[in-house]
User: Which sequence fits this backbone?
């Protein structure tokens, strides 16, 4: 009779890396697709509205046909610029946005032309929120909002995080005080 040998114990998976390890992290790459969807909605709305307004202006006035042609060329140029911004700009913006979380607080870097780095120490955090709009839900993303003590940067938003990551960062940033009355 065959005797089954006990299998070796399964190796436990390595512990998940902590978010508060001081590593600079990028936003979720899906934020590019989200920004493109939002840009497409804006582009279609603005471009369609301007085209309708141009047609109404032409039909309601006795303007020469050459003015209508110029208006159509202007509409085409504006639409082309909006389409470029819709599809190219989100990728550029994504490359320049990041965050870093450690035991002291969170640092958020963003901006393409005007770059900014905002540091929020944990001691200044009053409360945090995580929100999701309908398009963010579609991509599994969320926005972390940090409210701080003070007037400048009293509210700091970090959009483009995976929803689970935003919730984890929210929990890490919550003040840990023993004098809470709750």
Assistant:
């Amino acid at each position: 009779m065959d005797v089954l040998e006990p299998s070796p114990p399964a190796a436990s998976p390595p512990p998940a890396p902590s978010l508060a390890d001081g590593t600079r992290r990028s936003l979720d790459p899906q934020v590019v697709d989200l920004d493109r969807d939002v840009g497409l909605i804006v582009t279609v709305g603005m471009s369609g509205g301007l085209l309708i307004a141009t047609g109404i202006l032409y039909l309601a006035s006795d303007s020469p046909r050459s003015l209508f042609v110029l208006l159509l060329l202007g509409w085409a140029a504006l639409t082309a610029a909006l389409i470029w911004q819709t599809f190219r700009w989100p990728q550029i913006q994504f490359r320049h946005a990041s965050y870093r979380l450690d035991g002291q607080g969170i640092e958020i870097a963003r901006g393409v032309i005007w770059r900014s780095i905002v540091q929020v120490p944990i001691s200044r955090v009053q409360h945090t929120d995580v929100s999701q709009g309908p398009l963010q839900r579609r991509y599994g993303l969320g926005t972390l909002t940090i409210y701080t003590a003070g007037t400048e940067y009293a509210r700091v938003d970090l959009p483009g995080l995976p929803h689970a990551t935003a919730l984890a960062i929210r929990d890490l940033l919550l003040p840990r005080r023993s004098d809470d009355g709750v």
Summary: The CA atoms of residues 118 and 153 lie 8 Å apart. The chain has a mean pLDDT of 87. The chain has two domains: 30-93, 98-173. The radius of gyration is 25 Å.
